[in-house]
Protein backbone atom coordinates (compact mmCIF):
# COMPACT_ATOMS: atom_id res chain seq x y z
CA UNK A 1 0.00 0.00 0.00
CA UNK A 2 1.27 3.50 -0.79
CA UNK A 3 1.65 5.52 2.41
CA UNK A 4 3.05 8.88 3.39
CA UNK A 5 3.70 10.45 6.74
CA UNK A 6 1.61 13.60 7.16
CA UNK A 7 3.51 16.81 7.74
CA UNK A 8 2.29 19.06 10.49
CA UNK A 9 3.47 22.68 10.18
CA UNK A 10 7.10 21.61 9.92
CA UNK A 11 6.60 18.45 12.00
CA UNK A 12 6.31 14.70 11.66
CA UNK A 13 2.96 13.28 12.65
CA UNK A 14 2.60 10.19 14.81
CA UNK A 15 0.80 8.01 12.30
CA UNK A 16 0.89 6.99 8.63
CA UNK A 17 -1.87 8.15 6.32
CA UNK A 18 -3.19 6.97 2.95
CA UNK A 19 -1.19 8.83 0.33
CA UNK A 20 -2.64 11.60 -1.75
CA UNK A 21 0.78 12.10 -3.37
CA UNK A 22 1.80 10.40 -6.59
CA UNK A 23 2.81 6.79 -5.96
CA UNK A 24 5.18 4.67 -8.03
CA UNK A 25 5.76 0.94 -7.65
CA UNK A 26 9.47 0.30 -8.20
CA UNK A 27 9.59 -3.42 -7.43
CA UNK A 28 7.73 -6.30 -5.86
CA UNK A 29 6.29 -4.93 -2.63
CA UNK A 30 8.14 -1.58 -2.89
CA UNK A 31 6.44 1.78 -3.45
CA UNK A 32 7.73 5.35 -3.55
CA UNK A 33 5.41 8.32 -3.03
CA UNK A 34 5.97 11.99 -3.85
CA UNK A 35 4.00 14.55 -1.83
CA UNK A 36 4.49 17.83 -0.02
CA UNK A 37 3.24 21.31 0.69
CA UNK A 38 3.32 24.68 -1.04
CA UNK A 39 2.71 27.43 1.52
CA UNK A 40 3.20 31.11 0.73
CA UNK A 41 1.73 34.43 1.81
CA UNK A 42 1.71 38.19 1.24
CA UNK A 43 2.26 39.93 4.59
CA UNK A 44 2.16 43.42 6.03
CA UNK A 45 3.98 43.60 9.38
CA UNK A 46 5.07 46.31 11.77
CA UNK A 47 6.31 47.00 15.27
CA UNK A 48 4.28 49.42 17.33
CA UNK A 49 6.83 51.31 19.39
CA UNK A 50 9.69 53.65 18.51
CA UNK A 51 12.53 52.02 20.47
CA UNK A 52 13.64 49.74 17.63
CA UNK A 53 16.69 50.58 15.56
CA UNK A 54 16.22 50.07 11.81
CA UNK A 55 13.10 49.09 9.87
CA UNK A 56 9.80 48.98 11.74
CA UNK A 57 7.35 48.22 8.92
CA UNK A 58 7.37 46.16 5.75
CA UNK A 59 5.30 44.45 3.03
CA UNK A 60 6.68 41.22 1.62
CA UNK A 61 5.97 37.87 0.02
CA UNK A 62 7.04 35.15 2.43
CA UNK A 63 7.31 31.37 2.32
CA UNK A 64 5.49 29.49 5.09
CA UNK A 65 7.66 26.34 5.26
CA UNK A 66 7.06 24.74 1.85
CA UNK A 67 8.51 21.27 1.32
CA UNK A 68 8.69 18.20 -0.96
CA UNK A 69 8.52 14.72 0.57
CA UNK A 70 9.71 11.43 -0.89
CA UNK A 71 8.60 8.43 1.16
CA UNK A 72 8.79 4.70 0.57
CA UNK A 73 7.72 1.33 1.90
CA UNK A 74 9.19 -2.04 1.03
CA UNK A 75 7.45 -5.15 2.32
CA UNK A 76 9.47 -7.58 4.45
CA UNK A 77 6.61 -9.88 5.38
CA UNK A 78 2.95 -9.44 6.32
CA UNK A 79 2.65 -6.36 8.53
CA UNK A 80 6.38 -5.53 8.40
CA UNK A 81 7.99 -2.99 6.06
CA UNK A 82 11.21 -1.11 5.53
CA UNK A 83 10.34 2.59 5.43
CA UNK A 84 12.13 5.82 4.65
CA UNK A 85 11.29 9.48 4.28
CA UNK A 86 13.22 12.40 2.76
CA UNK A 87 11.73 15.83 3.41
CA UNK A 88 13.36 18.69 1.52
CA UNK A 89 12.54 22.33 2.18
CA UNK A 90 12.30 24.98 -0.49
CA UNK A 91 11.43 28.68 -0.43
CA UNK A 92 8.92 29.93 -2.97
CA UNK A 93 9.79 33.59 -2.37
CA UNK A 94 13.58 33.74 -2.88
CA UNK A 95 16.45 31.94 -4.66
CA UNK A 96 18.90 29.74 -2.72
CA UNK A 97 21.70 32.26 -3.47
CA UNK A 98 19.81 35.20 -1.96
CA UNK A 99 21.01 36.38 1.49
CA UNK A 100 19.09 34.89 4.40
CA UNK A 101 20.12 37.93 6.44
CA UNK A 102 20.67 41.25 4.65
CA UNK A 103 24.32 42.22 4.40
CA UNK A 104 25.68 38.77 5.25
CA UNK A 105 27.11 35.84 3.30
CA UNK A 106 24.69 33.39 4.93
CA UNK A 107 22.41 32.44 2.04
CA UNK A 108 18.83 31.18 2.00
CA UNK A 109 20.14 27.88 0.67
CA UNK A 110 22.17 27.50 3.87
CA UNK A 111 19.07 27.41 6.07
CA UNK A 112 16.89 25.13 3.97
CA UNK A 113 17.30 22.57 1.20
CA UNK A 114 17.69 18.89 0.37
CA UNK A 115 16.75 16.55 3.26
CA UNK A 116 16.57 19.51 5.65
CA UNK A 117 13.19 18.42 7.03
CA UNK A 118 12.22 15.25 8.89
CA UNK A 119 14.38 12.63 7.17
CA UNK A 120 14.82 9.09 8.43
CA UNK A 121 14.80 5.38 7.70
CA UNK A 122 13.41 2.50 9.73
CA UNK A 123 11.00 -0.38 10.09
CA UNK A 124 7.22 -0.42 10.53
CA UNK A 125 5.48 -3.32 12.25
CA UNK A 126 2.05 -4.28 13.62
CA UNK A 127 3.14 -2.59 16.87
CA UNK A 128 4.50 0.69 15.53
CA UNK A 129 7.44 2.23 13.67
CA UNK A 130 11.09 2.50 14.69
CA UNK A 131 12.98 5.29 12.90
CA UNK A 132 16.54 6.60 12.82
CA UNK A 133 17.45 10.08 11.56
CA UNK A 134 16.22 13.68 11.83
CA UNK A 135 12.87 14.18 13.54
CA UNK A 136 10.82 17.04 14.98
CA UNK A 137 10.57 16.67 18.75
CA UNK A 138 8.20 18.49 21.11
CA UNK A 139 7.98 22.01 19.71
CA UNK A 140 5.09 21.37 17.29
CA UNK A 141 3.12 19.25 19.78
CA UNK A 142 -0.59 20.22 20.07
CA UNK A 143 -0.78 21.70 16.53
CA UNK A 144 -3.92 20.16 15.04
CA UNK A 145 -4.39 18.96 11.46
CA UNK A 146 -7.62 17.06 11.83
CA UNK A 147 -8.65 18.28 8.37
CA UNK A 148 -6.02 15.90 6.94
CA UNK A 149 -7.16 12.92 9.00
CA UNK A 150 -9.20 12.45 12.21
CA UNK A 151 -6.22 10.70 13.86
CA UNK A 152 -4.27 13.98 13.64
CA UNK A 153 -6.76 16.00 15.64
CA UNK A 154 -5.06 17.77 18.56
CA UNK A 155 -6.09 20.25 21.26
CA UNK A 156 -4.16 23.28 19.96
CA UNK A 157 -4.15 25.59 16.92
CA UNK A 158 -5.89 24.07 13.90
CA UNK A 159 -5.72 26.53 10.99
CA UNK A 160 -5.90 25.05 7.48
CA UNK A 161 -3.83 28.02 6.36
CA UNK A 162 -1.21 29.53 8.62
CA UNK A 163 1.27 32.31 8.89
CA UNK A 164 4.45 30.70 10.21
CA UNK A 165 5.57 33.99 11.80
CA UNK A 166 2.26 34.19 13.65
CA UNK A 167 1.74 30.72 15.10
CA UNK A 168 1.28 31.03 18.85
CA UNK A 169 2.68 27.52 19.23
CA UNK A 170 6.07 28.79 18.05
CA UNK A 171 5.95 32.36 19.37
CA UNK A 172 4.70 31.67 22.89
CA UNK A 173 4.74 27.98 23.81
CA UNK A 174 8.26 27.46 22.44
CA UNK A 175 10.04 30.58 23.71
CA UNK A 176 11.74 31.31 27.01
CA UNK A 177 13.59 34.58 27.53
CA UNK A 178 16.80 34.46 29.60
CA UNK A 179 16.77 37.16 32.28
CA UNK A 180 19.47 39.63 33.31
CA UNK A 181 20.06 39.09 37.03
CA UNK A 182 20.67 42.77 37.72
CA UNK A 183 17.96 44.48 35.65
CA UNK A 184 15.35 41.71 35.63
CA UNK A 185 14.89 42.26 31.88
CA UNK A 186 14.91 39.70 29.08
CA UNK A 187 18.16 39.02 27.23
CA UNK A 188 17.17 37.85 23.74
CA UNK A 189 15.08 34.71 23.21
CA UNK A 190 15.71 30.98 23.58
CA UNK A 191 13.64 28.48 21.59
CA UNK A 192 12.71 24.93 22.52
CA UNK A 193 15.21 22.69 20.66
CA UNK A 194 15.87 25.63 18.35
CA UNK A 195 12.42 25.28 16.70
CA UNK A 196 13.93 22.90 14.17
CA UNK A 197 14.48 19.24 13.40
CA UNK A 198 16.46 17.34 16.01
CA UNK A 199 19.38 15.29 14.76
CA UNK A 200 20.66 11.84 15.73
CA UNK A 201 17.17 10.74 16.79
CA UNK A 202 16.04 7.21 17.58
CA UNK A 203 12.25 7.30 17.65
CA UNK A 204 9.37 4.87 18.16
CA UNK A 205 5.82 5.78 17.10
CA UNK A 206 3.13 3.39 18.30
CA UNK A 207 0.10 2.27 16.34
CA UNK A 208 -3.27 3.66 17.34
CA UNK A 209 -4.93 1.80 20.23
CA UNK A 210 -8.62 2.75 20.16
CA UNK A 211 -7.85 6.46 19.89
CA UNK A 212 -4.58 6.45 21.85
CA UNK A 213 -1.05 6.59 20.44
CA UNK A 214 2.34 7.53 21.83
CA UNK A 215 5.88 8.37 20.77
CA UNK A 216 9.26 7.86 22.50
CA UNK A 217 12.56 9.33 21.32
CA UNK A 218 16.19 9.68 22.34
CA UNK A 219 18.98 11.74 20.82
CA UNK A 220 22.57 11.81 21.96
CA UNK A 221 22.89 15.28 20.43
CA UNK A 222 19.83 16.97 18.84
CA UNK A 223 21.92 20.01 17.83
CA UNK A 224 24.23 18.02 15.55
CA UNK A 225 27.40 19.75 16.81
CA UNK A 226 29.23 16.54 17.60
CA UNK A 227 32.85 17.71 18.02
CA UNK A 228 32.66 19.16 21.51
CA UNK A 229 35.73 17.53 22.96
CA UNK A 230 36.94 20.97 23.98
CA UNK A 231 39.45 21.70 26.74
CA UNK A 232 39.24 24.59 29.17
CA UNK A 233 40.89 27.83 28.15
CA UNK A 234 43.95 28.45 30.40
CA UNK A 235 42.26 31.30 32.29
CA UNK A 236 38.70 29.99 32.20
CA UNK A 237 36.74 29.89 35.44
CA UNK A 238 33.13 28.84 36.06
CA UNK A 239 30.69 31.40 34.70
CA UNK A 240 33.07 32.79 32.07
CA UNK A 241 33.45 32.08 28.37
CA UNK A 242 35.77 29.18 27.62
CA UNK A 243 34.88 27.07 30.64
CA UNK A 244 34.09 23.43 29.80
CA UNK A 245 31.00 22.59 31.81
CA UNK A 246 30.40 18.97 30.97
CA UNK A 247 31.91 16.07 29.06
CA UNK A 248 30.29 15.51 25.67
CA UNK A 249 29.23 11.97 26.56
CA UNK A 250 27.32 13.16 29.63
CA UNK A 251 24.62 14.91 27.60
CA UNK A 252 21.51 13.61 25.85
CA UNK A 253 17.83 14.34 25.15
CA UNK A 254 14.75 12.31 26.07
CA UNK A 255 11.27 12.91 24.63
CA UNK A 256 7.89 11.29 25.28
CA UNK A 257 4.50 12.24 23.85
CA UNK A 258 1.02 10.75 23.97
CA UNK A 259 -2.27 11.66 22.29
CA UNK A 260 -5.90 10.64 22.57
CA UNK A 261 -8.52 11.21 19.86
CA UNK A 262 -11.92 9.61 20.14
CA UNK A 263 -15.30 11.15 19.54
CA UNK A 264 -15.35 14.85 20.30
CA UNK A 265 -12.42 14.76 22.76
CA UNK A 266 -8.76 15.31 21.91
CA UNK A 267 -5.94 15.37 24.46
CA UNK A 268 -2.15 15.55 24.38
CA UNK A 269 0.72 15.27 26.88
CA UNK A 270 4.44 15.76 26.13
CA UNK A 271 7.67 15.71 28.12
CA UNK A 272 11.17 16.85 27.14
CA UNK A 273 14.49 16.70 29.01
CA UNK A 274 17.64 17.99 27.31
CA UNK A 275 21.11 17.86 28.82
CA UNK A 276 23.66 19.88 26.83
CA UNK A 277 26.59 17.96 25.36
CA UNK A 278 30.03 19.25 26.38
CA UNK A 279 31.13 22.57 25.01
CA UNK A 280 31.94 25.83 26.72
CA UNK A 281 29.84 28.19 28.77
CA UNK A 282 28.97 31.68 27.59
CA UNK A 283 30.03 34.54 29.84
CA UNK A 284 27.62 35.08 32.72
CA UNK A 285 26.22 31.54 32.75
CA UNK A 286 27.09 29.32 35.68
CA UNK A 287 26.72 26.13 33.66
CA UNK A 288 25.03 24.44 30.72
CA UNK A 289 21.57 25.54 29.62
CA UNK A 290 19.79 22.24 30.22
CA UNK A 291 16.08 22.34 29.40
CA UNK A 292 13.04 20.65 30.91
CA UNK A 293 9.54 21.08 29.47
CA UNK A 294 6.03 19.70 29.90
CA UNK A 295 3.07 20.45 27.63
CA UNK A 296 -0.54 19.33 28.03
CA UNK A 297 -3.77 20.13 26.26
CA UNK A 298 -7.38 19.09 25.86
CA UNK A 299 -10.16 20.11 23.48
CA UNK A 300 -13.80 19.36 22.81
CA UNK A 301 -15.61 19.60 19.46
CA UNK A 302 -19.32 20.36 19.75
CA UNK A 303 -21.84 18.88 17.27
CA UNK A 304 -22.17 22.30 15.58
CA UNK A 305 -18.45 22.01 14.53
CA UNK A 306 -17.30 24.45 17.21
CA UNK A 307 -14.02 23.39 18.81
CA UNK A 308 -12.66 24.82 22.07
CA UNK A 309 -9.35 23.84 23.62
CA UNK A 310 -6.75 24.80 26.19
CA UNK A 311 -2.99 24.17 26.11
CA UNK A 312 -0.49 24.60 28.95
CA UNK A 313 3.29 24.64 28.61
CA UNK A 314 5.85 24.88 31.41
CA UNK A 315 9.49 25.22 30.34
CA UNK A 316 12.64 25.81 32.38
CA UNK A 317 16.20 26.54 31.18
CA UNK A 318 18.93 25.98 33.75
CA UNK A 319 21.43 28.77 34.48
CA UNK A 320 19.54 31.22 32.24
CA UNK A 321 19.14 33.99 34.81
CA UNK A 322 22.47 35.59 34.02
CA UNK A 323 24.68 38.51 35.09
CA UNK A 324 28.24 39.61 35.70
CA UNK A 325 28.28 37.29 38.71
CA UNK A 326 27.63 33.65 37.88
CA UNK A 327 24.32 32.28 39.09
CA UNK A 328 22.70 28.87 39.01
CA UNK A 329 19.12 30.18 38.82
CA UNK A 330 16.90 28.78 36.05
CA UNK A 331 14.69 30.84 33.73
CA UNK A 332 11.20 29.41 34.11
CA UNK A 333 7.86 30.40 32.65
CA UNK A 334 4.38 29.02 31.99
CA UNK A 335 2.15 29.71 28.98
CA UNK A 336 -1.57 29.15 28.51
CA UNK A 337 -3.15 29.03 25.04
CA UNK A 338 -6.89 28.97 24.31
CA UNK A 339 -7.70 28.07 20.66
CA UNK A 340 -11.27 28.34 19.35
CA UNK A 341 -12.39 27.38 15.85
CA UNK A 342 -15.69 27.10 14.00
CA UNK A 343 -16.32 25.64 10.56
CA UNK A 344 -19.29 25.65 8.18
CA UNK A 345 -19.27 24.26 4.67
CA UNK A 346 -15.94 25.16 3.05
CA UNK A 347 -15.34 28.03 5.50
CA UNK A 348 -13.70 28.23 8.92
CA UNK A 349 -12.82 30.98 11.42
CA UNK A 350 -10.29 30.88 14.25
CA UNK A 351 -9.45 32.79 17.42
CA UNK A 352 -6.46 31.93 19.61
CA UNK A 353 -5.35 33.77 22.75
CA UNK A 354 -1.98 33.00 24.36
CA UNK A 355 -0.51 34.37 27.59
CA UNK A 356 3.02 33.90 28.96
CA UNK A 357 3.57 34.48 32.66
CA UNK A 358 6.54 36.28 34.16
CA UNK A 359 9.87 34.53 33.74
CA UNK A 360 11.31 33.38 37.09
CA UNK A 361 8.91 35.76 38.90
CA UNK A 362 10.63 38.86 37.44
CA UNK A 363 8.03 41.59 37.03
CA UNK A 364 6.95 42.75 33.56
CA UNK A 365 8.50 39.79 31.67
CA UNK A 366 5.25 38.27 30.40
CA UNK A 367 3.50 38.67 27.06
CA UNK A 368 0.25 37.97 25.22
CA UNK A 369 -0.60 37.02 21.65
CA UNK A 370 -3.88 37.22 19.75
CA UNK A 371 -4.57 35.34 16.50
CA UNK A 372 -7.58 35.82 14.25
CA UNK A 373 -7.97 33.78 11.08
CA UNK A 374 -10.34 32.85 8.29
CA UNK A 375 -9.80 30.25 5.59
CA UNK A 376 -11.68 28.74 2.68
CA UNK A 377 -11.26 25.24 1.24
CA UNK A 378 -10.87 25.49 -2.53
CA UNK A 379 -10.39 21.69 -2.61
CA UNK A 380 -9.87 19.09 0.10
CA UNK A 381 -6.14 19.86 0.02
CA UNK A 382 -5.92 23.55 -0.98
CA UNK A 383 -6.85 26.48 1.26
CA UNK A 384 -6.68 30.28 1.14
CA UNK A 385 -7.30 32.75 3.91
CA UNK A 386 -6.31 35.76 5.97
CA UNK A 387 -4.38 35.63 9.21
CA UNK A 388 -3.89 38.41 11.81
CA UNK A 389 -1.40 38.24 14.68
CA UNK A 390 -0.57 40.69 17.47
CA UNK A 391 2.17 40.13 20.06
CA UNK A 392 2.22 42.44 23.09
CA UNK A 393 5.33 42.28 25.26
CA UNK A 394 5.45 43.69 28.75
CA UNK A 395 8.20 46.27 29.37
CA UNK A 396 10.95 43.71 30.13
CA UNK A 397 9.81 40.83 27.90
CA UNK A 398 11.22 39.70 24.56
CA UNK A 399 8.87 37.35 22.67
CA UNK A 400 9.46 37.48 18.91
CA UNK A 401 7.80 36.06 15.77
CA UNK A 402 8.94 32.66 14.49
CA UNK A 403 11.86 32.89 12.03
CA UNK A 404 12.65 36.47 13.07
CA UNK A 405 15.48 37.89 11.04
CA UNK A 406 15.52 35.17 8.37
CA UNK A 407 12.11 35.08 6.72
CA UNK A 408 10.83 38.33 8.22
CA UNK A 409 13.36 41.11 7.72
CA UNK A 410 11.59 43.67 9.86
CA UNK A 411 12.30 41.80 13.08
CA UNK A 412 16.09 41.51 12.74
CA UNK A 413 16.82 44.20 15.35
CA UNK A 414 14.00 43.39 17.77
CA UNK A 415 14.24 44.97 21.21
CA UNK A 416 12.93 44.16 24.67
CA UNK A 417 9.39 45.36 25.29
CA UNK A 418 8.35 45.96 21.70
CA UNK A 419 5.00 44.95 20.25
CA UNK A 420 4.44 43.40 16.82
CA UNK A 421 1.50 42.79 14.52
CA UNK A 422 0.98 41.31 11.08
CA UNK A 423 -1.78 40.57 8.61
CA UNK A 424 -1.24 38.08 5.82
CA UNK A 425 -3.07 36.59 2.86
CA UNK A 426 -1.89 32.98 2.62
CA UNK A 427 -2.33 29.81 0.57
CA UNK A 428 -1.62 26.20 1.57
CA UNK A 429 -1.68 23.41 -1.01
CA UNK A 430 -0.97 19.86 0.15
CA UNK A 431 -0.06 17.75 -2.87
Query: Strand percentage, roughly?
Result: over 45%
Q: Would you give the CATH topology?
A: Porin
Query: CATH homologous superfamily name?
Result: Porin
The low-pLDDT segments are: 1-19
- The ordered H/E elements are EEEEEEEEEHEEEEEEEEEEEEEEEEE
| Strand order within the widest beta sheet | 4-6-7-8-9-13-14-16-17-19-20-22-23-24-25-26
CATH architecture: Beta Barrel
Sheet of most strands: 16 strands, antiparallel, barrel
Estimate nothing, just give the exact number of structural domains.
1
Shape: globular
End-to-end distance, in Å?
18 Å
SS-derived structural category: mainly beta
Radius of gyration computed on alpha carbons: 22 Å
Main location: membrane
Subunit structure: Homotrimer.
Signal peptide: 1-21
Protein name: Porin
Provide structural commentary.
The strands form 5 sheets. The chain has a 16-stranded antiparallel beta barrel with strand order 4-6-7-8-9-13-14-16-17-19-20-22-23-24-25-26. It is 1% helix and 49% strand. The chain is built from 1 helix and 26 strands. It has a single domain, classed as Beta Barrel (Porin), CATH 2.40.160.10. It is found in: Cell outer membrane. Homotrimer.
What is the element layout, followed by pairings?
Blueprint: E1 3-7, E2 12-18, E3 22-27, E4 30-47, E5 57-63, E6 67-77, E7 80-89, E8 119-125, E9 128-135, H1 168-173, E10 175-176, E11 179-180, E12 190-191, E13 198-206, E14 212-219, E15 243-244, E16 252-262, E17 265-275, E18 280-281, E19 291-301, E20 306-317, E21 321-322, E22 331-344, E23 347-356, E24 367-377, E25 382-393, E26 420-430
Parallel strand pairs: 11-21
Antiparallel strand pairs: 1-2, 3-4, 4-5, 4-6, 4-26, 6-7, 7-8, 8-9, 9-13, 10-12, 13-14, 14-16, 15-18, 16-17, 17-19, 19-20, 20-22, 22-23, 23-24, 24-25, 25-26
Amino acid sequence: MNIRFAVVAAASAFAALPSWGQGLQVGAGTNITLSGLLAVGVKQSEVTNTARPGMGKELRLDDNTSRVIISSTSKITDGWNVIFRIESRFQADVRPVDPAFPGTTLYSGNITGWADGDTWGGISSPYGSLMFGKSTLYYTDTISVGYLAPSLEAPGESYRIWDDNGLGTFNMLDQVTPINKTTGAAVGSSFTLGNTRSRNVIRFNSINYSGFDFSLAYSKNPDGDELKYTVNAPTAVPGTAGYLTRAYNAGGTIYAGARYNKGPISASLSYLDKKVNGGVTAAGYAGPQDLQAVRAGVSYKFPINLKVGVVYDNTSIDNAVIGTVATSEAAKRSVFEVPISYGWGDHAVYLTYSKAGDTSSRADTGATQLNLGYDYAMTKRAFIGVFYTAIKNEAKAHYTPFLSGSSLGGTTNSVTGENWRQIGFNINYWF
